[in-house]
Amino acid sequence: MVTAYDAMEARLLSGAEIDIALVGDSLGNIVQGHDSTLPVTVEEMLYHTRCVRRGLDGPFLVTDMPFLSYNTSQKEAITNAGKMIKEGGANGVKLEGGAEISSLVRAMTRAMIPVMGHVGLKPQSINMTGGYKVQGKDLQGARQVIADAVAIEQAGAFAIVLEGIPPDVARAITSRLSIPTIGIGAGIHVDGQVLVFHDLVGWSDRPLPRFVRPFGSVGLEARKAVLAFSESVRNHSFPSPEESYPETAIPPGEILP
Ligand code: KIV
Ligand code: NA
Questions:
Q1: Closest residue by CA, ligand 1 atom 5
Q2: Model-level ipTM above the cut of 0.85
Q3: Which one of 125, 142, 151, 237 is most buried, counting C-beta atoms within 10 A?
Q4: What is the pLDDT of residue 256?
């Protein structure tokens, strides 16, 4: 699974053997420049979902339910998820949370909305947890994450993201569940992996977290290209005659009155 926020990224993923495109609320950080995902709205997620839908051909399309768009009431959750599917063209939605949202997940799946879970490090909960911290590090914490994953599966989720947990805890969850586990910062003992598109192609001007491997260096290439453009403009080597339209047949002197 890889994130996609627009049609261009969706087209790239469509030709790259990816199973799921995720319109992640991480777009709050990557696209909008916020320092968390909390400010992202339903309307913004809907806009990006539509952009991705137009470029996507093949992968299953999952959209994140943003902060406070599902924990307020079941009715509001189903209405907001319904927008992502009916107006945005998503195939399913992803919700952060464990046992405390299991009845909500059940209600949504009864309404024929495919739900992907997300447990462990939950970026929408940073104000409760004190920041972006690995979860499930002690026995009590590990049992909590495992219980959350089990509750989400029992509620009807079709897959679950395991974020920011030790590999042995991810292994325990993966062996316990029958739905696919998709890890990020959760080690190798999972059924699949997810990364943010920008991180995996190396499109970043910041140090990357430990769990990211940049498989390319798109950011560096882009910076080089922009530098080469400004140099070529300043030294008048761009555009060349081949990059310009043909001159007219108007005799010199007649263009200026
Ligand atoms: O918002 C996001 O990109 C995510 C993935 C990293 C799992 O939730
Ligand atoms: Na997210």
A1: 24
A2: yes
A3: 151
A4: 79
